[in-house]
Specification:
The chain has 86 residues and is an all-alpha fold. It contains three helices and no strands. The chain is extended, with a radius of gyration of 16 Å.
Length: 86
Amino acid sequence: IERVRGEVFNLSSGENLSVRDVIETIEKALNKRLRYRINNTAINEIPRQHLNFTKIKKKLEWEPRDNLRKISKKIFEWYLDYFNNV
């Protein structure tokens, strides 16, 4: 799209997830418990953060239709299919 050529946009579902939230979502999508460790060694780390998609909404009228919890299983199925056919 010529009118936004060279611009950078954040694409996001608008969710505000912790690392633990993401891990739990992935576990559900895989139907498997994951082994992980959270070190808690970061100083002054922001506990929750998300991308802001206001710019792409204004310029291209784009909004997310889904969120990570809703489509995570589809994402992993796509990757499995892709890597099984490479």
